[in-house]
Model the fold of this input.
Amino acid sequence: MCGRLVVTSSTKQLLAAGGASRADDERPPRYNLAPTQDAPAVLNRDRAVLRWIRWGLTPRWARDLAAGARLFNARAETAAEKPSFRDALQKRRCVVLADGFYEWAHGETPKQPWFIHRKDGAPLLLAGLWDDWREPNGGREWTTFTILTTEPNDLIRPLHDRMPVILEASALETWLAPHPRPPADWHALFRPCPAELLTRRPVNPRVNSTAFDEPACLAPYTPPPRAQLELF
DNA sequence: CCAGACGTTGTT
DNA sequence: GTCTGG
DNA sequence: CCAGACGTTGTT
DNA sequence: GTCTGG
Done:
């Protein structure tokens, strides 16, 4: 699963990772980015632009924007059949750029967050779907997204039974194709990424609160002994 | 034909 | 939007 | 994802 | 418990 992101790379670095040439906005680094907030993404509609769009996919037919609040993940195995996602999987794909994400160990108390990121420090390419939603009565249009999930690799499995779909750079071209593609094309891309690509470390449970959004979120942290025993 | 429902995941 | 029910 | 709020109507 | 907000 994937419910909290870190975005610390510069705009220049994000553009390079996503293969885009310009960004629609300049934002400060985020150390604790939650659903309903904006994250940087490259949409297959316009691959030249890095856009900051709202996390939580609101289908275009939903009654209100809030409908997307809980649709921040989509199971890769079933997205092709779900009313909220199937059209987007065919036609509206995106890559979300993030330097890492947090996972909480399944059912532990107190809740212990872990930071997961690439060993080489490069931004992750997270497979996403997007949609446009227009406010009634001529209001503004929102673009929202969700992150696809798959089974975990060996690094994530001790923590959780789901992880985000992380794409290799070589898959960008395929994933961001502008035209419709059948669901059968995606099976190879929806595999968990190699565990060796990533690393993890526990971080301060202050990260649990979205109000804690600063460099200290990523600082080294040793869980109390009791929690350590429970975790391994 | 129209009306009305449909959210998803992951938990326990 | 698409699908189901009437 | 997690944290935090949520009482509810009727009456003065 | 469920829903909302970040």
